Amino acid sequence: MRKIDLNNFQVATSETARDINSRIMLNLVRKHQPLSRADLMRRSGLQRSTVSVITEQLISEHWLREGAVGQALRGRRPTFLHLNENRAGIFGINIQPVTTDIALANLSGHFLAQESMPTPASSDKFVKQVSRRIRELRKEHPQMAYEGIGVSLPGRVDLSSQKLVFAPNLGWREMDLKVQLENATGLPVDLENAANACALSEFWFGKHAEVVRNLIVVTVSEGIGVGMILNGQLVRGTSGMAGEFGHVTINENGPKCGCGNHGCWEVYASNSAAVRYYSEAKSSDRNGKTNSPKQPAAKTFENVLQLAEQGDPKAAEALNRMAHYLGKGIAMLIAGLAPDVIVVVGDVARAWDKVGPIVTDVVKQRSSTHATTKIMASGLVPQPRLRGIIALVLQRHFGAPTTA
Amino acid sequence: MRKIDLNNFQVATSETARDINSRIMLNLVRKHQPLSRADLMRRSGLQRSTVSVITEQLISEHWLREGAVGQALRGRRPTFLHLNENRAGIFGINIQPVTTDIALANLSGHFLAQESMPTPASSDKFVKQVSRRIRELRKEHPQMAYEGIGVSLPGRVDLSSQKLVFAPNLGWREMDLKVQLENATGLPVDLENAANACALSEFWFGKHAEVVRNLIVVTVSEGIGVGMILNGQLVRGTSGMAGEFGHVTINENGPKCGCGNHGCWEVYASNSAAVRYYSEAKSSDRNGKTNSPKQPAAKTFENVLQLAEQGDPKAAEALNRMAHYLGKGIAMLIAGLAPDVIVVVGDVARAWDKVGPIVTDVVKQRSSTHATTKIMASGLVPQPRLRGIIALVLQRHFGAPTTA
DNA sequence: AACAATTAATTCGAGGCGCGAACATATTTA
DNA sequence: TAAATATGTTCGCGCCTCGAATTAATTGTT
Questions:
Q1: Cross-chain Cβ contact A369/B404 below 8 Å
Q2: Between β-strands B156-157 and B164-165, what pairing exists: parallel, antiparallel or unpaired?
Q3: Domains of chain B, residue spans
Q4: Tens of pLDDT along B180-230?
Q5: Sheet holding A374-377, edge to edge
Q6: Global confidence as pTM
Q7: Which nucleotide C1' is nearest B80 CA?
Q8: What's the CATH number for A87-203?
């Protein structure tokens, strides 16, 4: 149960009940469509009359549309209701150090357009290029009602100022991306950390989305990010800094991390770590017997994955070590937060047949508690960052209304 | 923003708005009392007429009572409103391995009675003794309207079955304490883990309670427990197992923990750890030069605290080490969850002048993020477990209503 | 002492909303 | 063709908040 926030509450008006119930109905249609008014009545527990009125209102506001007439063994046939998917067009932007993706999605999270471009060197150029592309896309899809823009970032967004802070991998300096992009496009902009976006993606579009209320996403790339859904909502912490479990110290005397400390989790379990493990194994080989003079170089994690796939034992060993440490960190998350599901996102998910069992083993060995967390690799939801960003904007209409 | 849980939602009725607004008003009075109807109007933003009607209703339901007439420079004088503290009597029971506390509190969290007894050896005896004592207390305070019983436990409570599980320090076997106690007393019973209870206590009665929405309590005794308030509500995780950060591995090769693993955080930072550090230092002395033949024995953490207070260097060193490891774990919590406040509860809080600075140092050294978490010792709220248990029951009436 | 100004609190009609019964519509079965 | 059954709509009732008007109580001014 939530405590009422007396510094930021909202009283109920005469329209509050309608707001609550129409959101519930909208969600029921989203989940179970197609659905008749009678179905909605049964699933919601509202009166037939109430359902009728709310449905009429939602249709007039273009949230729902009537579809085909269904079958019935006896009696009048039901008129099916559907989400009007074009009611809200959402732009999703996924900024990563090298590449930036832009997508246009509808209410169902389906992409109407998707494209990539090199990430501009400065935020000014970014705003210019992206806003031009968005103007063009709007012209190409004039039938949509545009809701807003969601941006996934490889860093943290300060909650109060909505400015980008702490994004070491991106060269941009602290800046007000939100206001600039809003001014350039005329659409409302929401910023969100990439790990949080992935968590939202799994939470709204994942296969377990229907039952799970506590879910954690671990994004593994050059670093490690954690996005947490607890009690059915995103955990952002003070000023949006929550989720930096990647910088929890695993070993004080470990290698130095980009954050300035030593032996952070991401130093041991990120893609970069696997590459390091591989090259270390290689060089130790050179120092000893050169039993494999033709051993190929692995400059990227992609290489390591491929080599492991091809049966290279050193690459497999590097993956093993990475998986081992991944398991340690995940064990920490399970002990402390006991989520229903932990989803691993990133290139490593492609080798989950090898990595997954090791992670599970390490976790099993360390879990004394009765927690029954499922660990799985992403892949069910393609483009998790973009999808999550869509979900972020989606929440405005499908999320629980803010009452009290 | 929360996602609506379609497996467990609540539609709005015509009374929903009243429910929301009267809870808001109840909370406003709780925080700012005494308060006039006009004050409530200004603070809530509701219409004067609405405030008047809701006030009348809350008075007729005995939640509020009218008090003195206030002063005003001009115009009619306001009639002050107060919480009717006796509207709800709540029994708080704090079970610990050795001692069990029973308290009777009113709506304000003030104790009308408080007593202790040795913890019974079995749950059957516990139910018998406690329910008899509660019957007697009810007779002694016949003016109260009794709301329920809250029980703080040194273990985890399974969310779905509401049974006590995973309480290694308590000798009782897995059992249905809730139902037994409800049958014996006729009052509704809520069970909660002790760390969670402390978190609730700080959240509802602590000095920062008015502004903070993300708060973590670390309870330090024989083990370490963590209670988390995130997004203004308790995080219990799947089936109530969240918060076992005490069993996160700090050092794989460390001493064995009661949970079966090695080198858990609580092996390094609990009271028991400090006692171990002290006795290790002592024995190493014996092996070397016996420079302090009269060095006293320290069998309990209490001893270590006293010795450190008296200037014993070995005891101070033991506390230092404990503080150091406490800092490591707290740094993990800050990196991952970025709460506004972390409160340390337990005997160690009494030595916070020595322990606090060390903890802060370790955290500062490790925090690369911009999180601005305050770390403090408890002490502001006496009897945190009992108070938290009161808060747990309090939430039924003062918490946000469950809408959608 | 009388009256205006000011603030507190109540009253009352209007409009939004959900409830539930009655009614209209549509289809199958006897 | 009539009864049975299911979907969907209409309408009056009661609950709720809003906002204007009204009553109540107090101070300052003339």
A1: no
A2: antiparallel
A3: 16-83, 87-203+385-398, 208-380
A4: 999 999 999 999 999 999 999 999 999 888 899 999 999 999 999 999 999
A5: A233-234, A224-230, A215-220, A341-346, A374-377
A6: 0.94
A7: C8
A8: 3.30.420.40
